[in-house]
């Protein structure tokens, strides 16, 4: 839990020698609303923009929606906690999303030992509670100045990247671990990220394969280079141009390799065999025998040094609600509307849905609910599927059940047709087990 600074409301100095915040935005994460408010007042008087978060989950949502320059991170959130474990886990998540983000940790009960552990984990600096306001501001300014120097050294003038330490654009590709399966996926990805090994990310569409590939790139030794997305949907000529322009500093992200034509696979293999040192990351909806049947063995050998399978959303249990709350916070910030929360009934309804389009469908549903709901607490009708349907009935009305049933039937029929009525392949795409798909087929008379 938080301790108040000794004098959070002491008069702020009008100017500080050498100070030049340049509109930098500070994210302050602390469970004590009074401390957040007092510190925000201090920092705003020193020229900083300030956003607050009450816990690590909210901090990740704010970071996804806001261009942040420095994070001020308290280390304990559960009443009576003194180990700093919650803050250290949040620190790791923040740096995985943006490895260059300066994080200043706040220690009170945790003491110097946990501050040292935070520094080893990547924190830029620390302050002790109760703090002196001048010391706090100086620490934040030092962290920001160091960050700007690092960016300037890495980014040549006129290269078109962030200038003078400006905050990176907000990015909602945040990887949220709300269940054991996802925590295991992120642990494996973080372990392989610093190496040069090829990584194959498998799972149905919409589970977050591309977002995970970007996380691996951000944590790699080649993060200063480009992440070149090679997607045949952009056109084979585009892929060829990007391949030809890649060098040893870059990472190649091969999207849905199972869909690549033999000619394009030949071109990629030739580029890889020619050398150049670019790292390979790849995604595929299916792995195993299905992928071996569609990808050249020599190429697959280069791509599939380490395989990480992302589970479908429906298999992630409690993570559905965790992600839903994250998206609600994200879109409330992005669209400037009141915060939304989920009723217990809405959480149950979300957990019961099959989510054939996985995380991206949940994201869309929460954005729709954020902007369209009349009340702050969302009910079942608010989180139902989109409408209106072909007959003009909107989902979420008393007549919504037939609409949802027809939507499910149409999705199952489409998946079966795409896979030549191979139930195993269709079930995998839909994120269902074979028995579950058979039950739904029987329900819809398929």
Overview of the structural elements:
The chain is α/β, with parallel strands linked by helices. It has four domains: 25-154, Rossmann fold (3-Layer(aba) Sandwich), CATH 3.40.50; 180-311, P-loop containing nucleotide triphosphate hydrolases (Rossmann fold); 313-383, Helicase, Ruva Protein, domain 3 (Orthogonal Bundle); 394-446, Arc Repressor Mutant, subunit A, CATH 1.10.10. It contains 17 helices and twelve strands. A five-stranded parallel β-sheet has the order 2-1-3-4-5, with helices on both faces. A five-stranded parallel β-sheet has the order 7-8-9-6-10, sandwiched between helices. Strand 8 (251-254), helix 9 (262-273) and strand 9 form a beta-alpha-beta unit. Helix 2 (56-65) crosses helix 12 and helix 15 (400-418) crosses helix 16 (423-430). The longest helix has 22 residues, at 133-154. The N and C termini lie far apart (56 Å). The model is unreliable at 1-20, 156-170 and 387-402 (pLDDT under 50). GO terms for molecular function: ATP binding; sequence-specific DNA binding. The modification 4-aspartylphosphate is found at residue 74. One of its GO terms (biological process) is regulation of DNA-templated transcription. It comes from Gluconacetobacter diazotrophicus (strain ATCC 49037 / DSM 5601 / CCUG 37298 / CIP 103539 / LMG 7603 / PAl5). Keywords: ATP-binding, Nucleotide-binding, Phosphoprotein, Transcription, Transcription regulation, Two-component regulatory system.
